[in-house]
User: Fold Golgi SNAP receptor complex member 1 from Psilopogon haemacephalus.
Amino acid sequence: LRKQARQLENELDLKLVSFSKLCTSYSGSRDGRRDRYSSDTTPLLNGSSQDRMFETMAVEIEQLLGKLTGINDKMAEYTNSAGVPSLNAALMHTLQRHRDILQDYTHEFHKTKANFLAIRERENLLGSVRKDIESYKSGSGVNNRRTELFLKEHEHLRNSDRLIEETISIAMATKENMTSQRGMLKSIQSKMNTLANRFPAVNNLIQRINLRKRRDSLILGGVIGICTILLLLYAFH
Assistant:
């Protein structure tokens, strides 16, 4: 049973890899056809051959998953039989490992299948829209060209409106931040004024310190000016 399970698991692994590549190539080919269609050089092609291959591979993988499920059930029956010790850790570990592999393969298959179906459904919807656009283009001529120009201009205007709205939102946020900062500064200033009114001695001391700083600045500026004048006179002398 283990040998059969491993053989089925190897087949499933190869099938799932091919299945995933098919889904990827289906999406890539659809994107390529979409790009060619957008350049108006190549008409839209259908993927009927890929769809048939997808259905065939999905049926094969489902059959392999069913066979592997049956093998796991047989191994579970064997471990639960009367002739097998009930506390055989190796058998239970092997059975659990094969169950985990089956669960992983099943999950991967359903996930890939769901992605493929979603891509196909989306492309079918887009294909019908493209056909309508193509028929409209073939029947409208110059008017269609004008409509395209109007649509492009409308898209540009929408982008401009969006940028303006973003700029306005940024400006409003900046204004709110500045308002909050101004409130904080006013609060700090009021607290400082309150402290200054409560402690006049401290206020006088601060004023004296400021006057001394101004005086020192004036003295320093005068000394620097006199030295500069002396240096200029010495240089020109």
Summary: The domain at 1-27+45-138 is CATH 1.20.58 (Methane Monooxygenase Hydroxylase; Chain G, domain 1). The chain has a mean pLDDT of 78.
